[in-house]
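We were asked to recover a plausible sequence for a given structure. The inputs and outputs are reproduced exactly as logged, with field labels preserved.

PROBLEM: sequence recovery
POSITIONS: 412
GIVEN STRUCTURE:
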């Protein structure tokens, strides 16, 4: 009985030590960077900082309310957020107008954002700041292969917010159910709301195919401002949001090194943009480092800011992370089945998976010391001899064709 109790205590202590060693802030640019951490737990904190634009170009007079940007077909594409039904193709070098494409058989109540995937361009007609009670929120989906033809193919994705139950009209700019930013992943659409009341951004998810849906609340990000645009680098696990404060001070909000589509689980860094009194609305990038940003025309008694297209570079904030992706092996979630038997063991351990092909096994102690490393000839089952290991808890990393999966086992 005493032996059993001792073993249980050893397991609990070992798991606690393992968790403490493996998780933490993994970004070397953070104040609380932990060089020993192997798994990013989203705890990184950063010094207050800002970035300057490299260049600013005048946008055409027809684009006073440029509200979203994408980079497609070697050009910048944008739109207005009034009743204008045109897409504008711009030269990225001088912001001059290349061509205009009319999107007919639809309306523009409040086009606030544009994004894309391999086959479609998506336009978000979901601006909702005037009264907060729109019941016709939707996203237009435009087939790219029809964009330069006489008949542009457009269909519609309709949605409501899953947690909006009160549709009483509010005064202007007085709702949390406004939206001006969204991204499209390989299988879903993610909305990033512009919360006038809470100064946060809530993420909602819905399918990316035509239909009518209830957008499901996923998470809320404490951006302390108003989010107006988004750019997604899916393969880099990087989202760059743009917005401004209630005093029209623009900022960028970086989400990166997250797990899967849990965008709030990784690093969250706010970077000021040195463009005071600019109503920044659109953002796009090809590589996650060099960005284009647009602002609407803005005028009041103190200042008049014309519509412009700006370029900026975020290598000081993101280059170390993007460089690390070259050698990055994705950590898989628990949906990938992996069995270790027997566990605990005193001689050997059998490893089996239905959906992974093994390449390498690495066994380390709870203190990170590697005690065994061996390659496998691409199989989905294997047996490791662990008889020579001292009794205790060990950490097994299985490197496979799809990424890395981690398991603990006990050597008796």
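RECOVERED SEQUENCE:
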């Amino acid at each position: 009985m005493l032996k059993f109790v001792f073993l249980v205590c050893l397991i609990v202590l070992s798991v606690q030590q393992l968790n403490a060693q493996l998780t933490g802030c993994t970004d070397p640019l953070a104040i609380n960077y932990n060089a020993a951490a192997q798994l990013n737990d989203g705890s990184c904190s950063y010094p207050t900082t800002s970035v300057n634009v490299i260049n600013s170009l005048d946008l055409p007079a027809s684009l006073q309310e440029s509200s979203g940007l994408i980079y497609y077909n070697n050009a910048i594409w944008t739109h207005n957020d009034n009743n204008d039904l045109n897409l504008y193709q711009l030269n990225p070098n001088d912001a001059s107008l290349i061509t205009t494409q009319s999107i007919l058989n639809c309306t523009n109540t409040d086009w606030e954002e544009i994004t894309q995937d391999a086959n479609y361009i998506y336009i978000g007609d979901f601006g909702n700041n005037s009264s907060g009670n729109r019941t016709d929120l939707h996203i237009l989906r435009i087939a790219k292969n029809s964009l330069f033809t006489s008949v542009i193919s457009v269909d519609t994705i309709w949605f409501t917010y899953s947690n909006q139950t009160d549709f009483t009209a509010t005064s202007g700019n007085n709702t949390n159910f406004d939206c001006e930013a969204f991204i499209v992943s390989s299988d879903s659409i993610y909305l990033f709301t512009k919360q006038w009341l809470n100064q946060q951004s809530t993420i909602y998810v819905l399918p990316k195919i035509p239909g009518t849906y209830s957008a499901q609340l996923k998470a809320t990000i404490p951006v302390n401002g108003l989010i107006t645009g988004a750019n997604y680098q899916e393969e880099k696990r990087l989202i760059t949001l743009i917005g401004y404060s209630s005093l029209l001070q623009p900022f960028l909000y970086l989400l990166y090194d997250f797990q899967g589509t849990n965008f709030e689980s990784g690093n969250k860094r706010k970077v000021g943009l040195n463009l005071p009194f600019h109503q920044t609305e659109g953002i796009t990038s090809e590589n996650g480092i060099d960005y284009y940003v647009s602002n609407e025309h803005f005028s009041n008694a103190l200042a008049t800011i014309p519509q412009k297209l700006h370029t900026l570079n975020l290598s000081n904030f993101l280059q170390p992370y993007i460089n690390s992706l070259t050698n990055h092996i994705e950590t898989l979630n628990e949906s990938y089945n992996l069995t270790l038997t027997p566990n605990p063991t005193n001689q050997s351990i059998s490893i089996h998976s239905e959906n992974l092909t093994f390449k390498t096994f690495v066994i380390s102690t709870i203190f990170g010391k590697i005690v065994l490393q061996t390659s496998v000839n691409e199989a989905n089952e294997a047996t490791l001899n662990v008889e020579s290991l001292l009794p205790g808890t060990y950490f097994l990393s299985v490197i496979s064709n799809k990424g890395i999966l981690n398991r603990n086992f006990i050597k008796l």
